Amino acid sequence: MANTAKILVPDAADQSGCVDCPIRHQSVCAFCLPDELDTLEQLKYHRHYEAGQTIIWAGDEMNFVGSVVNGVATLSHTLADGRKQMVGLLLPSDFIGRPGRRLSSYDVTAVTDVTLCCFRRKPFEQLISSTPNVAERLLDMSLDELEAAREWMLILGRKSAREKIASFLTILARRAAKAEGKAPGGAMTIDLPLTREAMADYLGLTLETVSRQISALKNEGLIRLGGKRRVDIPDLRRLVTETGGGTDDDLFA
Amino acid sequence: MANTAKILVPDAADQSGCVDCPIRHQSVCAFCLPDELDTLEQLKYHRHYEAGQTIIWAGDEMNFVGSVVNGVATLSHTLADGRKQMVGLLLPSDFIGRPGRRLSSYDVTAVTDVTLCCFRRKPFEQLISSTPNVAERLLDMSLDELEAAREWMLILGRKSAREKIASFLTILARRAAKAEGKAPGGAMTIDLPLTREAMADYLGLTLETVSRQISALKNEGLIRLGGKRRVDIPDLRRLVTETGGGTDDDLFA
DNA sequence: CGATTCCTTGAGACAGCTCAATTTCGGTGG
DNA sequence: CCACCGAAATTGAGCTGTCTCAAGGAATCG
Predict the structure, then answer these.
(1) What is the spatial distance between Cα B96 and Cα B106, in angstroms, rounded to a whole number?
(2) Are strands B73-78 and B188-191 parallel, antiparallel or unpaired?
(3) Position A169 pLDDT exceeds 70
(4) A7-147 belongs to which homologous superfamily?
(5) Does the distance separating the beta carbons of A140 and B142 come in below 8 Å?
(6) Domain B160-240 CATH assignment equals 1.10.443.10
(7) Does the pTM of the predicted model rise above 0.70?
(8) What gap in Å lies between CA A159 and CA A165, rounded to an integer?
(9) Which of A122, A114, A33, A12 has its CA nearest to residue A71?
(10) Gap from B139 CA to chain A (nearest CA, Å)
């Protein structure tokens, strides 16, 4: 059930080559040479999931690995009593799955419609051994994720609710700027990919507290809301001031 | 200053070969063949730090990477106002530093006397390219650390103080058992490598709350204390019950 | 055995949680 | 285009777990 990808629409990317792939230069294949790309092209296949669908349950067998091509997905831990903590926010080019692991350690959920570029796990494991460029890129991506996780730990362990929200918005703003190839700063508008509840699961808060803090930032003019999901940041620098510090300090260093 | 390793005593391990190294089969060199070990042997050198010494400050230049041979070290983030969150607990065989990164992202501190087996960064980076066995092991270790960080995020974000303490003790017990090659379970005794304050920094609590929760577990007979640092766990299963669940569930699966 | 560091315990304050209405947004069908 | 509906978000009031501030007590080291 969990692995049953729903075909939403015929996918142009399935036909077109890796060369035109939107995540070509950020994903696990970023370092690949043209002939290596040809090999990948043989092995890859796309899967589609609707917003809200569970891609994999924690503990389920996972016979593929892959990259997010479009959309947003989350990794999360759930306790027996229902408490939930998000542990990964997967944007386009992020990698799902672990070579050498048969069972998923997390619940993986599509929060928007999602397209994955997948490889069956076994062939991909061979690929890693035979293609140093893939292994090297995967190591680098994993170390980036580890750093992000550790920054996140600082937020979870030591920041106030207000600082958590400010930090989260700043992270999104920075990622959005990077994705668009701009430098973050000044005035920006971001689209929240997550509901208040999902933000709460990200930040270790309740959805009510998230809502209250967002309202507070709004009332103080640090942000403006357009609908529920659109956030205007008139001055990113001022928002960063509210994060309590951390890596974000270097944002404008 | 930060990189000035203090020589405590002449070190036998400096003379003896990698073959006799206590972390030979867990560390980054675990997969190396005998001839590869010879190469490493040429490059490696040992450093010693006293308990309490800072090995590297966040932002400092780090011209080496290395493995913990003896002792315990921590990685931590510190905010401008002094709030601190530990983000890594490094035991023997754990790796310090990131290939390709010139500056340290964390404060690295020796909490006991520590011996590191080091490589200068540049040669090590070449080593990774030329020795797939090292690269592969490093990837695997990094992914293990990422999983540990994500488990830790669940603890930080969603668990109560009592559950945090129980989780922490359970993690230590499991690691200790693994290091001794035993299966965790039944009655165990562990040595806390950390002060109450360091435990608080690990768990995102204050030292007073840590102390109170440890006292509570003691008064309920879930643990016994021998001195400040020795903890008797009469029945690990019962302690696991108090962790609130998570990965620890599978401990006896 | 004295000193220092670490730990424990207490009392009061407060941030964030819980429970409970409303309100707003965004989509859907008339 | 408008009225309606359900999901998501907001806001309020009271509670509770953890923090803060403060005082004393134990372990470890010279």
Answers:
(1) 10
(2) unpaired
(3) yes
(4) Jelly Rolls (2.60.120.10)
(5) no
(6) no
(7) yes
(8) 10
(9) A114
(10) 5
